[in-house]
Amino acid sequence: MPxxxxxxxxxxxxPTASTRVPSRPARIAAHPLTALIGILLVSVNMRAxxxxxxxxxxxxxxxxxxxxxxxxxxxxxxxxxxxxxxSFVPGLVRRLGPERVVLGALLLLAAGVxxxxxxxxxxxxxxxxxxxxxxAMLNVTMPGLVKRDxxxxxxxxxxxxxxxxxxGATFAAALSVxxxxxxxxxxxxxxxxxxxxxxxxxxxxxxxxxGAGQDRTAPAAAAGSGRLPGLWRHPLAWQLAVFMxxxxxxxxxxxxxxxxxxxxxxxxxxxxxxxxxxxxLVQVAGAFLVPLxxxxxxxxxxxxxxMAGSYAVGIAGLMIAPAxxxxxxxxxxxxxxxxxxGLAMALVVLRAGGAVVASQLSGMSQMVGxxxxxxxxxxxxxxxxxxxxWTLPLTLLLVCCGVALAAGLGAARPVTLRxxxxxx
Length: 424
Description:
Blueprint: E1 4-10, H1 32-51, H2 57-64, H3 68-86, H4 89-96, H5 98-116, H6 121-149, H7 154-183, H8 186-209, H9 218-223, H10 235-264, H11 269-294, H12 301-320, H13 326-351, H14 355-387, H15 391-411, E2 415-421
Antiparallel strand pairs: 1-2
Helix pairs in contact: 1-6, 1-7, 1-8, 2-3, 3-6, 3-14, 4-5, 4-14, 5-6, 5-8, 6-13, 6-14, 7-8, 7-11, 7-13, 10-11, 10-13, 10-14, 10-15, 11-13, 12-13, 12-15, 13-14, 14-15
């Protein structure tokens, strides 16, 4: 009987288990343009529902009389649920197919957003849990879809959907308060993002119907079927997970605290907000350009050094001259925040030998990564409160840059993890 193993090989083409899988009905391939539009629509939803909460957090906390800790939990819960849910998603993809998982996730996301605006604290937090679980399903499924539908342009497409995700998050944060005024309250503003999820689900439906009545396991077979044994014991898988985790931790922490660091050093709130908005704008460029460059390289170690170095210089600048060099630090940190996440996602795709492997690597790296990331904003906030300053918290972030560099250099090696079938 054939068996599936975890194999580490140089990144070049090898015969895989798919060459020995008996032929079976395959899913009708989507037109590349249709697949691209579908992926972009899904990507816009992958951060919007979470980013929309932060500008409204004060109003939500006041409405329900929440403490600062409870209010902060609203933004932390979805991140924790992303980590908890991520490990279960590859199994769902194998059973149902990625198209159905994405459709279910979009509907679940719309339901979670609707639940958040129902009357009461319990629905508010329960909806945040559902939103986090839905986003995790999208996060884990996307690398496999990209690897399957765009095998020759996987890194470029990773940059495209990473950029769409950041654009969605930026617009959600920017529009939340204006929509609060337009709809007469924070409930209407938050609820509006369920419409985006439902519209995306409706436009994604043809992707599901394109394979109706056919064998939904065909994509798995074509990529090398079976669960990869030993994945959690493989050093490369852990290097990918830690790199993604630290990149996410640094980004979430700086998103939460960078404006406060600037205002604590004498900058006006208006100027700090403008600099932070510029930082978000630079993120978009980094999220697109860095994965695109990664796909053109055999080894991505130079990009790892660039991302970790940009983070380190920017964080050190916030320690040494936060106000005087704010625009420089915002440029470097924006490049690292957008490019670091895009590079982490690109490495998952590039190190995977097929769609199934990409899904499993994505599940593991995101489960570990989001647990790491959730510690950042809370830990830095606690250290700041304990010490009354920013020196120790920012020093800790510099240490994290060193950990990211070490893990990233390992993850950027030109090797591939794939399932290999052996003849009896």
